[in-house]
Write a structure and sequence with these properties.
The chain is an alpha/beta fold and 457 residues long. The protein has three domains: 28 residues, no CATH class; 315 residues, Rossmann fold, CATH 3.40.50; 71 residues. Helices cover 41% and strands 18% of the residues. The chain has 15 helices and 19 strands. The strands form six sheets. Strands 7, 8, 9, 10, 11, 12 and 13 form a seven-stranded mixed sheet that branches. A four-stranded antiparallel sheet has the order 3-4-5-6, with helices on both faces. A two-stranded antiparallel ribbon has the order 1-2. Helix 5 packs parallel to helix 15 and helix 13 packs antiparallel against helix 14. The protein is elongated and about 115 Å long.
Length: 457
């Protein structure tokens, strides 16, 4: 095989760069996940840089914001909020939780807080918009975007008796409670034989609107598959996969389709990940990976880590916590679900939940020192020449004080033994929830909220 001359390679690269620059100059508003342009004079089709389109540039900005907020969090001081707004912003009641949202404008990175007022007669959402400190900016009406979430809703997961679909939808609703969500209950069989897609296509063909599809379901292909290097699948898989997962009918209707890149660590798992098969054979399906708030990097399990398959990244590792009114599984302020059982409800009343470990330990040390001080005081009584009745009276008072402090210590230890220590605080032992299944609905919900806020801020 003849090796190309280096000058030819350079010349071809320069020619492609010139063609791309010409197309972008003629049409600066390029759209799509795999953008292409046409040279007007010749009709030649040219593949453009992946992140030259409006959607992909927004994805890059949102990825940076998500990474920054995963590391540092969002400041929530609300020093300029009215008393009524402050109560709504800080309430942990479920009703209040699902009537507010935090929105970061990808254009400038500014954070806004949105409070739902009511639904208008024409189906729009009347909201109050506040800045990052809680100061009122304006009222507005939002037009809800419609998000389809095909998932498994009729099988309980190991998390609080919730189905996988319920968990996924909870993450979406918390990040955008103003959108409309349509569940499509699927099974792995439906997923494999394309029944899921046909149901969604039929729904749209009946005149129903869908703006986004959030796909978190993932699994592995059965049997031995060829290994995938850099996610380049062999021709056999490329031929078969579109027959099983053909999203063209949906994407051609203007529906944006985002799919979790899957959870995989080993090369073999990545090679057999059905989500990666879908993403590599569907040019208009967008991939979503997971960010770890612990490391500030892409999660170890995130199935693909290249821009060919994964253009979006959101947090996909969350440790649930208890609130006064239930359980928080999303990491956002507030309460996401009710207590699934009485045991967790009782634990939520433990006074040490959320308290710094060092302060509790300091209190324990202080109590122990007080007990020692009282014991020494009692010993000193007998060294004094006191009348017997007086001696007994003072000794009794000291014994009572010792008993009170011993009970305080026991109670403190009992409460602490019910909990675990995490990040320097006492917390209830709840299982961590991880996966690109979480990252996907978060990004879809945020994209939909971007659309809903367009032209308002």
């Amino acid at each position: 095989m003849k090796i190309p001359d280096i000058k030819q390679i350079i010349s071809a690269a320069q020619d492609l760069a010139q063609k791309r620059a010409k197309i972008l100059q003629q049409n600066p508003k390029i759209h799509g996940i795999n953008p292409r342009g046409i040279i007007e004079e010749t009709g030649e089709v040219v593949e453009l840089p992946r992140f030259s389109s409006i959607e992909m540039q927004t994805a890059q900005k949102m990825n940076k914001i998500a990474l920054h907020q995963a590391k540092t969090g969002i400041p929530r001081t609300f020093t300029k909020a009215t008393p009524e707004d402050l109560q709504r912003l800080t309430s942990t009641r479920i009703k209040d939780t699902y009537n507010r949202a935090e929105w970061t404008n990808p254009k400038d990175g500014k954070v806004y807080h949105i409070l739902k007022e009511y639904v208008t007669k024409n189906g729009k959402i009347k909201v109050r918009i506040l800045d990052s400190e809680g100061a009122f900016i304006k009222e507005a009406e939002l037009t809800p975007k419609i998000i389809a979430i095909p998932d498994i809703y009729n099988v309980e997961s190991k998390y609080f008796g919730m189905s996988h679909g319920d968990i996924v939808t909870t993450f979406a609703r918390r990040h955008n409670p103003f959108a409309r969500y349509i569940p499509f209950n699927v099974s792995l069989i439906k997923l494999h034989n394309q029944t899921e897609l046909r149901e969604i296509i039929e729904y749209v063909n009946k005149g129903n609107r869908i703006d986004y599809i959030s796909g978190s379901i993932g699994r592995f292909i059965g049997g031995s598959q060829p290994k995938v290097k850099n996610f380049t699948l062999n021709e056999q898989v490329r031929t078969i996969a579109p027959q099983l997962f053909d999203y063209e009918d949906l994407s051609s209707k203007g529906i944006r389709i985002l799919i979790g890149s899957g959870n995989a660590k080993t090369e073999e798992e990545i090679a057999q990940g059905i989500n990666n098969v879908i993403l590599s054979t569907q040019p208009k399906a967008e991939g979503v990976g997971s960010i770890s708030p612990k490391t500030g990097k892409v999660s170890e399990f995130s199935g693909s880590k290249n821009s060919e398959l994964t253009q979006h990244y959101e947090v996909g590792e969350v440790t649930p916590t208890l609130t006064r009114h239930g359980i928080n599984i999303t990491g956002l302020p507030g309460t996401d679900i009710k207590f699934p059982n009485q045991r967790l409800e009782e634990l939520s009343k433990n006074p040490l939940v959320g308290k710094p470990v060092d302060k509790v330990k300091a209190l324990q040390t202080k109590i122990e020192a007080r007990i020692k001080e009282l014991e020494n005081a009692k010993m000193n009584l007998f060294a004094q020449k006191l009348p017997f009745p007086e001696l007994m009276e003072k000794s009794k008072k000291i014994d009572e004080a010792i008993q009170i402090n011993r009970l305080r210590k026991k109670k403190l230890l009992d409460f602490s033994y019910q909990l675990i220590q995490r990040n320097g605080k006492y917390e209830i032992a709840l299982p961590e929830i991880t996966g690109t299944s979480l990252s996907t609905p978060i990004r879809v919900a945020k994209l939909a909220l971007n659309d809903m806020m367009e032209g308002i801020i």
